Automatic annotation (TrEMBL):
<protein>
    <recommendedName>
        <fullName>Transposase</fullName>
    </recommendedName>
</protein>
<keyword id="KW-0175">Coiled coil</keyword>
<dbReference type="InterPro" id="IPR002514">
    <property type="entry name" value="Transposase_8"/>
</dbReference>
<dbReference type="InterPro" id="IPR009057">
    <property type="entry name" value="Homeodomain-like_sf"/>
</dbReference>
<feature type="coiled-coil region">
    <location>
        <begin position="54"/>
        <end position="85"/>
    </location>
</feature>
<dbReference type="Pfam" id="PF01527">
    <property type="entry name" value="HTH_Tnp_1"/>
</dbReference>
Amino acid sequence: MKRKSYTPEFKSQIVLEILKEEKSMSQIASENEVHVNQLHKWKTHFLQEMPQVFEKQNKDKEKMKADYEKQLDNLYSEVGKLTTQLSWLKKKSGIYDD
């Protein structure tokens, strides 16, 4: 007999339904054809992992900010280099900016 596989979306939906506490675990298990013990495991796992969701969001934001700042520094560096090259070329060619 093949084990049943559930998507993360399905598990999330079930855990949210459990957390609403509008129905009993047995009722939710029966309606979704999932054993009550499995629901307890999903709920426990979710509650244990929940703080990491917020940590990940903060890390993602910090990484995006660091990447943005690095890109900005690179662009400023490139602008400075090009400005210096342009000034040098103008000086060498006899073109002056008034």
